[in-house]
Amino acid sequence: MKHSKGFTKVLDDYIDYYLPLLSGSEFKLLILIVRTTVGWNKDKDILCYNQIIKRTGLSRRIITPSIEKLYQLKLIQITDESGKQLNTAQQRIQSKCNYYTLIAAKDAKSTFKGMHKLHPTIYSNKQQKTSKIKLTDRERIDQILDKHKE
After folding, report:
1. Which of 83 and 147 is assigned the larger pLDDT?
2. What is the C-alpha separation between 93 and 125, in angstroms, rounded?
3. H or E stretch including 78?
4. What is the reported pTM?
């Protein structure tokens, strides 16, 4: 395999915060979306299930829940060709080819500026660190999903 001289910028928060929270398939999908959007200087890119399978090695069965998790964590936005937001797995499956947008890539500074409020155990000041309570991965995921519902 010939190595390219190019690279794709990845926000530190995807690695520092989300890497431990995402499964391998979810992270593969996130990195694919980063590559096809940020890597090509695009706001959004179209990906079909067959492309995702070919580029990630994931099975069709695991793609839908992986997309759903990234969507629930508000890492991605999914639309059809007309720009209509696809909010349910059923809508996304029917469309087959969807446009994926990294929400953080739209405005990384404003998205991650308030991250310490959503994730106080990760983004805390020195005073908070002394009284920080350790949470399990499941508790952190539930905490994130609860915050996004508010």
Report:
1. 83
2. 43
3. strand 76-79
4. 0.67
